[in-house]
Amino acid sequence: MRSDLIAQINTDNLIHNYKALRACCHSDVKFCAPLKGDAYGHGISLVAPVLQEAGADYAAVATIGEAVELRKLDWKPPILVMGNVLAVSDPRERRERIEAVVEHDLALTIMDETTVLHLVRAEPRRRIAVHVMLDSGMGRMGTMPDAVEGLVRSVQRASCLRLVGFYSHFATADFANRDTANRQLATFNRVSSELGELLPARTVRHLANSAATITLPQAHMDMVRPGLALYGYHPAVHMRNLIDLRPALRLVSHLTLVKEVPAGHCVGYGRTFTTKRPTRLGIIPVGYFDGFLRRLSNSAWVGTPEGDAPLIGRVSMDQIIVDLTDLPPMPSGTEVILIDDRPGRSNSVAAIAECLETIPYEVTGLLGSRIQRVVVGSYCPQFSLRATHS
């Protein structure tokens, strides 16, 4: 049965973005496809097969569960789990996670000595690939520069581990001012140089997110990890003319009810909108449960075949209300566009993010479980159709 909410994933646009980002890099730089958060809300079961067939060298996810799901989708390249996923208090849970890492041939992120100790004590039946993460200045995950050498030595002493990667993450690569990004890059290069032969010859060094992939070629190292840009969204306004990116997602629904109300009539919870004239209302089955946030109340626009309609009243859990008065009549069942894949539209991901005073990641990442993801476009690998819901 078809859902009332359809996210159309344009795989042609996805491939276009992949190739455009690849073109930013030297031919020997590997491409890591960030697929965490259900492929940034786009549906990992649809996105992953497309990117694997296109030639992605790696995938990055946040959790072991995401990595296992990816392997079940027949993803063959290496998978890096970026979270500190063994930091759990239950020893049985930790053991299960380590067994899953071994069974599905996953690469773990190492950022503290405790993780190394857990892995050594577990005595896994096969060596585990690991990437050591450096905090080069972001102040979030990763080990500090003065502790990296000791951590790398601990990894090298552990016969159950195999060091294959060394990485960090930018905090401000999307800023026009490069001072912080340049300091982080310098820190990464300095620490990497100081480690010298402690890092195996084929260690994959990686640092570049979307913004750095586009604007900082000196940060490309051995691999890039462009997440947001891969799905068609520019990391910052000043980058819009630097690369042609095409949004891969379009969210559509339909009018479930069209009705007339008189002037002075309440619209939605809290009476935040009262009609000033006889008004034709359109009801659409989407709400904050689906990621269409309550802060869009009285602020957003919805596309219809007859023109754009303003959202009036508060966003409910399952419904929004739009004003159709100034548009030609439309019946119930008429398709509407909640998120447009045309960048300049008033209901594009970028426009919605600006309205919410947030970032595009949040707009797509919050799209909920009632939304059915389907492939549109000519590029549709056969096994991507195993699952079309997320």
Structure description:
The protein is 28% helix and 22% strand. The protein is α/β, with parallel strands linked by helices and 390 residues long. Strand 8, helix 9 (210-215) and strand 9 form a beta-alpha-beta unit. The longest helix has 17 residues, at 179-195. The protein is elongated.
Which key features would you list for this structure?
elongated, 11 helices, single chain, 390 residues, TIM Barrel, Lyase, Ornithine Decarboxylase, Chain A, domain 1
Strand order of the largest sheet: 2-3-4-5-6-7-8-9
Classify the helix fraction into a percent range: 25-40%
CATH topology of the largest domain: TIM Barrel
Number of spatially distinct domains: 2
Radius of gyration: 23 Å
Secondary-structure blueprint:
Elements: E1 6-10, H1 11-22, E2 30-34, H2 36-40, H3 44-54, E3 58-61, H4 64-72, E4 79-81, H5 91-103, E5 107-110, H6 113-122, E6 128-133, H7 145-157, E7 161-167, H8 179-195, E8 204-208, H9 210-215, E9 223-224, E10 249-254, E11 257-261, E12 266-267, E13 273-274, E14 279-284, E15 301-304, E16 307-310, E17 320-323, E18 335-339, H10 349-356, H11 360-365, E19 372-376
Parallel strand pairs: 1-19, 2-3, 2-9, 3-4, 4-5, 5-6, 6-7, 7-8, 8-9
Antiparallel strand pairs: 1-10, 10-18, 11-14, 12-13, 14-17, 15-16
Helix pairs in contact: 1-3, 7-8
